[in-house]
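Field notebook, page 367. I keep forgetting to write these up properly, so this time I am using the form the group agreed on. The chain and the ligand, S-adenosylmethionine, are recorded exactly as supplied. Prediction of the bound pose follows.
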Amino acid sequence: MTHSSLPLTSPSIADLLPDFDADIDHASLNGIDPDVNLITFSQSKYFNRLLTHDPHVGLSVLSHNIRVLDLFLDSLATITNTLATEKNTTYIIYSHVERIYKELEQLGIKDNDPLDVHQVSQFDQYHYHGTESVAEATKKLGIETPPKTILSSSSHRVLDIGAGLGGPSRYLAELTGCKVTAIEMQEDLHLVATDLTRRCGLSQKVTHICGDILKYDIGEAGKYDFIVSWLVFLHIPEKKRLFEKCFGYLKASGQMYVEDFWKKSEFLPEEKEILSERVYMRDPPPSDLDYIAQIKEAGFDRVEFDDVTDSWSDFCKQRAESYRKLKERHVRVHGKDVYEEQDAFFDAMDFLFHQGHLGGCKLIATK
Ligand SMILES: C[S@@+](CC[C@H](N)C(=O)[O-])C[C@H]1O[C@@H](n2cnc3c(N)ncnc32)[C@H](O)[C@@H]1O
């Protein structure tokens, strides 16, 4: 489709979409990087309205302003492309994000009630060993943890990549008083994360961004003392670009902490299939040596690699067993479909670790 094929005489945007605030939305549209494949919530609401509008009228409205149209077409192409090529990879990876609200309801906590980080952290950590692992990372990295007073806060700035429900970000901010930028690609997770952070009274400390770390420009090169990321890099095959981006966001001598999978030895075809279909890994993970080499190639000076396979393997075994023991309770709270999906996933992870080819690691890379 070329721009010139579109009708150029058109009613104004304000005529057709009376509550459309041209200035605000125009400003946000101008801010869109044509290369993004995820747009912010307010932008997506606007695009959705245009898309669901009568297409003819919608296009006429867009032709009103060629700059808007350019951005629209670019974004539309990228969205279409994303849906087509990333359907089962990185767009919607985690389903049933509402589970956390059902768990809170079981504790008598209603929507919009204020929350305590320690209450919610039982349910908002999508990685192994929950807050224990976050506390351990804080110590290892030496994130300032000033004594707790009303005014206490750490001067450290942390970027949490693939924040999920925001659990690790909130826990870090609560524990240390540091400021966290939490970037999460999946919009529903991002929205729940933002809601939980507000209800925990941590919005001043944790800033949530919805975007793909590879595409979204946080615009704060060299500003972060630490990057942290729990079980996210496994979903991102473009490691070279990822590590280069991370390197760019860190201050001199800044540190990147990553928990991830690695390849201990060759996977069987069946394992590869599970990694792709159930764990949403487009490529199997790298070996320990490849992982370290790729991080160093991005410019990092030192890389510490800690093999935690045994501990994660035990965790997965126990998780699968205890989940199944409480089948009746989980079915009652979440429904049969959700129970079965979770059960199959926990089982698949237990199987993968049991096979002995998948490894777990904690990495610290220093700029
Ligand atoms: C296993 S969850 C971990 C969530 C969180 N780190 C935690 O430990 O609770 C992986 C998360 O990474 C997010 N993710 C995957 N690829 C991403 C990307 N390219 N940019 C931002 N987030 C991404 C997923 O949407 C998902 O929420």
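OBSERVATIONS:
- The pocket of S-adenosylmethionine is lined by residues 90, 93-94, 125-127, 162-164, 167-168, 183-186, 189, 212-214, 230-232, 235-236 (CB under 6 Å).
- The longest helix spans residues 66-85.
FOLLOW-UP: compare against the apo run.
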